Amino acid sequence: MSEASPAKAYALHLGVIALLFVLSFLLPEYYHGLLARIMVLAVFAMGYNMLFGYVGLLSLGHAMFFAAGLYGAGLAVIQLGWSVPAAFLCGIACGAVVALVIGLLALRTTGVAFMIVTMMFAQVFYLLILYFASWTGGDQGMVVPQPARVLVFGATSLELTNPTVRYMTALVLFSIVLLVTLAIVRSRYGRVLVAIRENEERTKMLGYDTFSNKLAAVVVSGSICAASGAAYALLFGYVGSSFASVQYSILPLLWVLLGGAATTLGPLIGTLFMYYVIDITSGYTSAYLLIVGIALILLVLFFPKGILGSIRQRWLGWLP
Amino acid sequence: MTPLLTTKGLSRNFGGLRAVDNVDFALMPGEIRAVIGPNGAGKTTFVSLVSGRIQPSSGMIVFDGADITSQPAYVRVRQGIAYTFQITSVFANLSAYDNVALPVQRTLSDGRSKGAVRAGVMSALDRTGLADRALMPAGQLSYGHQRLLEVAMGLALEPRLLILDEPTQGLADSEIDNFITLVREIAKNATVLLIEHNMPVVMQLADRITVFNAGKILAEGTPEAIRENAAVQEAYLGTAP
Amino acid sequence: MHFGPHLLLAALEGLVTSAVLALTALGLSLVFGVMRVVNVAHGEFFMLGAVLAWAITTAIGGHPALGFLAALVIAPLIVGAVALVAERLVLRRLNYNPEATIVATIGMLYIIQQLALTFYGPEARPVEPPFSYRILLPWFGYSGYKLSVISASALLLTATWLVLTRTRIGLVMRATQYDSETAQAFGIPVGRVYGGVFALGAMLAAIAAVLIVPISQAHYLMGQDPLLLSFIVVIIGGLGSLRGTVVAAVLIGLSDGIISMFFSPTLAKIIATLLVAMVLVFRPQGLFGTASR
Question: What pTM, to 2 d.p., does this model score?
């Protein structure tokens, strides 16, 4: 956050991106799909972190932003026959609009009421998807047809179903969002967001319109989550109502708590780690939500700063 | 000369209590005004009404000729009313630099330039003698330095009216002397409204003094006049001399 | 069947829902009122009560009434004990911080639900009602058991009301709710009160579940709807007001019963959830306004 060591911070982030790039040549085929999925979901977590970590607003309804992107992009392809880039932008736009409306309403509340209200709006969104089943496929969901999942650049075309293309596309999205997040956090706007988290009343008395700043943060956060959802629909070809359920509002919270709230790389680490844990335990139990529950409780009890938050506190104060 | 700030019939009730009761008040540009009075006299409530932190029950507030009664606090800050808190409320987890950068970047017309922000922050920190502690988290500064940081944040807003709520509370004597110099310096460019319990500080600094008691203005005048005022002595000491 | 009897049937079904809902919501309301904890796992305590009722009646066998009575006593006690342990091990250590406790109770929700899935399984299982007397009305016959659920709930609500308003325990609880620090200073063991209230809240949900399980079967996901409905009741009814909770429960229960006869249940849920969210946004004093004292 402070003026110190911008070069170190950028070097670290570019290093992480480079590492993920190199990994695509070293890892066996199976991990390509898994890591691509993790990178897309880490974008979801980064969007969540924007609001929860930096502004201190704990939402329990972010599944609706992810799902807005998912359905915005998926339906654009399936029902309207749009191209992949157009559908992707449509997904982000849907997320931004939903976030704007929800932000205008939910930001009138604070604390516990904000959590409950966002959860209820997300529930309404989920039920609407079920209610309009003829359009959305209801709880069965829909498959985005393979021939439509192609990126066309003039003469060349990239098939998003190809594992390498999918991995690289996910990496590009992840890298852009990571660097954008880093830039926002280090900007003067990021400084205002943190100030609101630390003491909203004081921030007002420095002349800031905190409501507008928070609203902008909700929209940015919602748009990033929607970008993740849109990418998910286009890369993995499935659009389903389960992504709008409460569970998908809890998961980003868990990932961010685990990796470290208000750290730029925490969401990636949390998502990666949680996938790994669930992957290991899935050999023993099908009830993987049990692990989610236990992890949530252990984190709030013993490890509220998360992995990177603790590292920053102990050793690396400059970590953004 | 027209006053910078006036209030007309300003009142605020908390439940059955009239914390501020029908106050008419005027403040001239460039003066240092001290507000004194016993605990619970309504001083902090009064300046909170002026700064917009709380809404009045009735009455109006005029700043620089414009009615600002219904404006939210942040708009008043932008028009030049800065408030430093009685209980220190710096951003404890942010560095001193970031604390001051928040007001600086908003005030600057060219807040996007990192160089301009840096120059503004360092000048405010210099004026308050905190420059060598810029990168320390504000929560780790000594109490006196946190108070000075509050003032630096207020200064960085480049206010036309700076409201200081008990700024010397908890400061050591040597720090108080520096503080008096600082306020004199601020007053060259701004009007100062000062709530203060420390009478020597008030007597040295104030051009005029307003005495509050039970939510009303009891007396107003030069330091000498207030010192001689029997009603004030009664309010403070409980007995007529 | 004509419209009149149809409506009467819907109203009776609605009253049964209301009766169970009032008990469940009262538990949620007590916990939020006294401890300022939003217990997202409340629905899972409800589910646990129902699953335990099935386990107990199956284990005891014999006349259905025997097993049912045993379940009515034992299931709430076990659920209360589980809640007490959770309160001691988790909520207390979080110092009842409102946001941290929500995250923690979400964790509890998943743990209880998934343990039920692991040990009880994904099937829905019935519990036999203690008696199967049917009351014959001129237009249709109606289950005597359902009517007894309504009266049992009314009895329990009255008992809770008496405890809250007429006894020392109630006084201690109200003092803690009003100002826990002052209560502590006056020698009230606030920690024990919190533990007791959390257990009591869970037990009310468990009792409600035991009462309903002969009508609607036990299932590991059955806690979700009661949770949502209880939130709605508590928000509409206003915080800590027993009367408000009961009135809102009757209102919601009746309208739920009647609406779902004429509309799709999904649409009814959408409208109800949206309305309640709007209440929270525009009239926060309904529930959470008093949270920030």
Answer: 0.87
